[in-house]
Amino acid sequence: MPGDGEKGGFSADIPASILEDALRSVEKHGPGESPSGGVPVEVEPPSGANAPSEEESLRAQLALSQEKARETLERLKEEHERHLRAAADLENYKKRAAREKEELQRFAAERLVKDLLPAVDNLERALAAAAADDPLSGGVRLVLKQVEELLGRHGVEAKSALGEPFDPRYHEALATVDAPGRAPGTVVSEHGRAWFMNGRLVRPAMVAVAAGKPPAPGAPPPAEPPKD
To answer: How many domains does the chain have?
Structure first.
């Protein structure tokens, strides 16, 4: 019943012994246990307490996006390098093809020139064997000049090796001969001149070389034989 306390208050006279029994029962079972000995009472956490916050979710999405962006960047980088290598290979192929085409054009007639050179050699031998007053020598000399001019228009030219030291890069020794007064290894006679096409050797000179070993570099030349 309402007493002398505050308005709306409630008071009841509970014996002190009952309150003590209730406190002992709570202390005996501990927190979370049913005083009657039944199943412990489980208190569920508030809904969403263990769920990640919105900030953590955004952080995870950002990290995933950054990882995918790095992977995409690596793939683009590899693809770019592959395209660069392909472009470089194509450019090198074009340059090589252009060089081969130019070389083919410059040396297309090389085989024909090689087949023609023996005829030129025969004309030169005919002139060398002809007598000074032979009326045919003038015609042979004219034909030889025309052939040489024709070869010159195609970048073909001859070079004599007479009097030069033997050079295996440009000379082919057919024989060695005794040549008093000539340094050993010197070209003393020539059976065919060396021919070049656009600077490249087409055929070496066919020569005869003075007998003996060539002098060592820097050695004095051999003494001239006494004159009668």
So the answer is: 2
132-154: per-residue pLDDT in tens? 778 888 888 899 999 999 999 88
Let me know whether 89 and 122 are in one domain: no
pLDDT of residue 52: 67
Return mean pLDDT, the chain.
78
The values of phi and psi at residue 15, to 5°, are: -60, 145
Task: Determine, yes or no, domain membership for 225.
Answer: no
165 domain residue, yes or no: yes
Residue 81 CA, chain-centre distance (Å), reads 14
By the 10 Å C-beta count (0-12 exposed, 13-18 middle, 19+ buried), 164 is classed as middle
Domain span at residue 143? 110-210
Considering the domain architecture, whether residues 81 and 153 belong to the same structural domain is answered as: no
Q: What order of strands is seen across the sheet that includes strand 187-192? A: 171-177, 205-210, 187-192
> Has residue 116 been placed in a domain?
yes
Confidence of residue 22 (pLDDT cuts 50, 70, 90): low
Of 220, 160, 169, 224, which Cα lies nearest the Cα of 187? 160
Instruction: With 0.70 as the threshold, say if the pTM is over it.
Output: no
**R_g of the chain, CA atoms, integer Å:** 56
CA distance 186 to 23: 134
Parallel, antiparallel, or unpaired for β 194-197 and 200-203? antiparallel
State pLDDT tens for residues 46-103.
455 556 688 888 888 888 888 899 999 999 999 999 999 999 998 898 888 888 887 7
Sequence-ordered list of residues with C-beta below 8 angstroms from that of 189, at least 6 positions apart, any chain: 162, 177, 207, 208
